Amino acid sequence: MTSPAHHLSLPIPRWAYAVALLALMVTWLVLQENGIALGHAAESLHEFFHDGRHALGVPCH
Amino acid sequence: MTTYTGVLLRGVGAGGIAGLLAGLFGLVVVEVPIRAALAVEEARPAVESGGHDHGEMFGRGTQMVGGVLGAVIVGLAIGALFATALAGSRRWFVGRPPFTRSVTLGAAVFGAAALLPAVKYPANPPAVGNQDTVDYRTMLYLGVIAAGLVVVYGSSYLASRLTHLAGPVRSTVVALAAIAGVAVILLAFPASPDPIPADMPSEVLWQFRLASLGETAILWLGLGVVFGLLTDPSVRQSTARAQALAA
Ligand SMILES: [Zn+2]
């Protein structure tokens, strides 16, 4: 059972780091943003995702 | 399948599916104690103006949609990270079938990023936290997750360095090291700064905490299982081939 088809490890292109950064930013915006990046607009984002934040265990007010 | 792009797209797809399942679980199960907690909050005299008011900017219906959508978006994002981590890993169970690797990584990250913080800083429904401590609590929460991920990474690194040991011995050593790491985290991090308000019924609190843990379990284990299913046709083929040879 050691056929190469079992290996998922692949060369990672450089743009993958941009994708990872984007994914982290999106997660931050949905779960954490409280005004650092968006200022006052963060409040509507926070309120919209409020149930999702609590349900996913993120600390809130 | 043989390119990073193919793996990435499967990760995003698996994350979206797991996020939708988690979000729907949240809609049906987690919303029940959330609603009860909001009722507790509303019953309080509105003295302080510092806290954010629920239901003023958005109605409850919109926030419930936001709850599902939030889980889907987070699922898409962690799916991309998950696929990248698996594709980039040179040590993580490399000889194992993709399905095993995916499910194991999903379970490990669930342990580090959801179960561990749930033990140290249990999730709280609305009406529990103090607005003044939210930054500090967030820091502690993210710190525990980061430390947990270090334990996961360290355990897999240790396992890859101990290949000269017999399987059971190696597993025992790695498990003991991981348990020691988790124990250090649980002891080293300070307790949650906020007491539970007296008006919050403990049934609501624990119903919420269990339901929330269920949602994160669906998200991470679902991601591991669905990504494994999407990346594993080659294993099913080789299994069928092996059975044909044995028959
Ligand atoms: Zn809240």
Automatic annotation (TrEMBL), chain A:
Q: Where are the transmembrane segments?
A: 12-31
Superkingdom classification of source:
Bacteria
Name the UniProt key words of this record, in alphabetical order: Membrane, Transmembrane, Transmembrane helix
Q: What is this protein called?
A: Putative cobalt transporter subunit CbtB
Give the source lineage, highest ranks first: Bacteria, Bacillati, Actinomycetota, Actinomycetes, Pseudonocardiales
Automatic annotation (TrEMBL), chain B:
Please name the InterPro entries in this protein's record. Answer: CbtA_put
Membrane in keyword set: yes
Q: Which UniProt keywords apply?
A: Membrane, Transmembrane, Transmembrane helix
TM ranges are 7-30, 64-87, 99-119, 139-159, 171-190, 210-231
User: Pfam families, from UniProt?
Assistant: CbtA
> What is the protein's given name?
Putative cobalt transporter subunit CbtA
Question: Which species does this protein come from?
Answer: Saccharothrix variisporea
